[in-house]
Amino acid sequence: MNVLGIETSCDETGVALYSTERGLLAHTLYSQIAVHREYGGVVPELASRDHVRKTLPLVQEVLDCAKLTAKDIDAVAYTAGPGLVGALMVGATISRSLALGWGVPALGVHHMEGHLLAPMLEEDRPEFPFVALLVSGGHTQLVRVDGIGEYQILGESLDDAAGEAFDKAAKMLGLPYPGGPQIARIAEDGDPKRFNFPRPMINRPGLDFSFSGLKTHTLTTVRALEAEAPLTDQDKSDIARAFEEAVVSTLVIKCRRALEQENLHRLVMAGGVSANRNLRKQLAETLGKQGSEVFYPAPQFCTDNGAMIAYAGAQRLAAGQVDGTEVQVRPRWPM
Ligand code: KG4
Ligand code: ZN
């Protein structure tokens, strides 16, 4: 079965083709970062308009790349939420129209389920059960995964998501959107000993997160330095380093705790922040010491993409879960 996957929940238009027999056949992505950068964040109306322009040409591109035609497609999967309502509506409407025209089923996929299953696109894929750390611009969650559709939230952020915290800290340092990769880049030149930022919630039991205090601490540090003189590049790098260290060690501590609590030895990490090299390194080191394995998607499938939606849709289709014909999206949608 060949499933077309369409992702339009935020600022990337992702389209891919997944075959249940042959794996990923083609994928393509158009990022709107350049459109939103001058506004310092995603402008929902501009995002919707750009998805309208880009989605169909990208569908044609993946069909051509896989040397398939519409007749070869068995289902269309799309992101039905959570995300920006207008952006979701574009993907849902195009997907449902294609499915209706082609006479095949359409499936609305949960965006975070897509992220969670993205490591399954790799050759070295985890077996169930495992714990997943989902870290994106909108979510920070630890989830116990016993199978497709069998998800139990173990902990989540009580305020900002990890990616959102990265983006806000970057803004304070005058770095462009999206801030995560920018912080990571300048943190490489930072002095790890100059600042020690708090590790939020690590002394409390449980698996929830909170990143807003860290955000405030970053702002206070920036303001204190700026009161003396404008920030130098070294100041920015040192702050970025301390910030990244605090987020990374908080995430690592909670992951270790989640595996211990669930008595599991496999951790899957997904979502945009899982592209962070420092996080990958420290997780692998810490969990490796306790005999656990860490699985990640390939870097291009850490951030939003169509492949994860095509894959999740294929699993849902195989399980016989086809939706009705109405176009329904859920901007807020608990997993
Ligand atoms: O999963 P994603 O592409 O979109 C959402 O579903 O939100 O995640 C985007 C988030 C942004 O907040 C971005 O700053 C962050 O992931 N991000 C990173 C890195 N690459 C992307 N954060 C830290 N380090 C990175 N290397
Ligand atoms: Zn995402």
From TrEMBL:
Catalytic activity: L-threonylcarbamoyladenylate + adenosine(37) in tRNA = N(6)-L-threonylcarbamoyladenosine(37) in tRNA + AMP + H(+)
One Gene Ontology term of the molecular function aspect: tRNA N(6)-L-threonylcarbamoyladenine synthase activity
Binding site for substrate: L134, V135, S136, G137, G138, D167, G180, N276
Cofactor binding note from Swiss-Prot or TrEMBL: Binds 1 Fe(2+) ion per subunit.
Residue stretches making up the Gcp-like domain: 24-311
CDD domains, per database record: ASKHA_NBD_TsaD_bac
EC number(s) from the headed UniProt entry: 2.3.1.234
Any Pfam family the entry gives: TsaD
Keyword Metal-binding recorded: yes
UniProt entry keywords in alphabetical sequence: Acyltransferase, Cytoplasm, Iron, Metal-binding, Transferase, tRNA processing
Principal location class: cytoplasm
Ligand binding (Fe cation): H111, H115, D304
Required co-factors: Fe(2+)
Localization of this protein: Cytoplasm
Lineage top rank: taxon: Bacteria
Summary of the function given for this chain in its UniProt record: Required for the formation of a threonylcarbamoyl group on adenosine at position 37 (t(6)A37) in tRNAs that read codons beginning with adenine. Is involved in the transfer of the threonylcarbamoyl moiety of threonylcarbamoyl-AMP (TC-AMP) to the N6 group of A37, together with TsaE and TsaB. TsaD likely plays a direct catalytic role in this reaction.
Similarity comment: Belongs to the KAE1 / TsaD family.
Protein name listed in UniProt: tRNA N6-adenosine threonylcarbamoyltransferase
Annotated source species: Congregibacter variabilis
Gene: tsaD
